[in-house]
Structures are given as structure tokens and as C-alpha cells.
Design brief:
With 173 residues, the protein is α/β, with parallel strands linked by helices. It has a single domain, classed as Rossmann fold, CATH 3.40.50. 30% of the residues lie in helices and 25% in strands. The protein has 7 helices and 10 strands. It has helices spanning 2-8, 22-37, 64-68, 88-91, 107-114, 150-155, 162-167; strands spanning 39-40, 52-58, 74-75, 78-85, 96-99, 120-123, 135-140, 143-148, 159-160, 169-170. Strand 3 and strand 4 form a beta hairpin. The radius of gyration is 15 Å and the shape is globular. Mean pLDDT is 86; it is low at 1-19.
Length: 173
Amino acid sequence: MLVLVAFLGFGPVRSCAQSGTQHEYELKAGVLYRIIEYVEWPKEAMSNNPGALQIGLVGQIPFAEALEVLNGKSIQGRELIVKRISDLQEATNCQVIFIGASEKARIAEIVAQMKDRPVLTVSEVAGFAEQGGMVNLLAGPNRIVMEINREVAGKAKLSVSSQLLKLAKVVSK
């Protein structure tokens, strides 16, 4: 845990990442920011707005404002733009989508629509990475547990740093 915290640059985490709390979503936002730093997209994925990296929020996210704090920050020389998405068609214009737990019943549909597209799919639904999602952020005791499906990310032409993979539980479909 301390290695993950040090790697991600958060410092000590004092309270538990309990399900559905403001603190949990603040931790997830920080982890998401660091994950994005260690992912490379193909050039064609950035062609619609090369100076920006869009993060779409899909579903009802209890503390979405904790994730929206990333709006305006910069990664890899690109400004982060966080927006709520109501239609999956909008997600194809994003480089990252965060899928809230409210979409648990639609995970298969969302994964199918994003299949092989250079869109980093991130969720908080148990089993997401095994169902064809790329990154799952789950609340664990005193931490956020990261699961990554490297195979799915590779098929979408996303390159995930080996440094990040060392800190995650790597799963397959």
C-alpha cells in the first residue's frame, strides 16, 4: 500500500476508503489522474482536440464533483476536460470514461460499444476488468485497489506503463 501511495504521489492516507464516501471519490480522482499519466494513446485518438484530454463521466456518480476537480488540470501537455455524459455516443469523443456503479446493469453494453476504441474505460463496479473493461478502482481497507485488463487496453491501442502494471492486480477477460 505504501508503495502505491508513494508511487502515485498522495502521501499517507489517514482514513478508510469506504464505499460511497466523498473521501473515496477524492482518492479515486487522484488515482485516475496518476493512471492517465502512465497511459499513452495513439495519435488518432487525440485528433479531435489535440490540446485536450476528455474524461467523460457515465452514470450517476454520488460525489462527481470530487472527480470534476480534475477539470482544467494538465497531463502530458494536454488540458483535462471533465464532462458528464448522458449518451454513450458522446463517449466516443473522450479519451477516458469513468463509469459509475449506477451503470452495473449496462456494463456489457458499454464495454461492447467501446470495444477496441482508444478510450480508457474506468469503473468502480466489481468484476468490471474481467468483463472487458480496462481499469477498475475498488475501495479496499485504507486504499483504492486497482485492477487492470492489459489485454483489452492493448486491443484498443492504449499503452499502459509497466510501472503502473506493477502496482495493479492484472486481470484477463
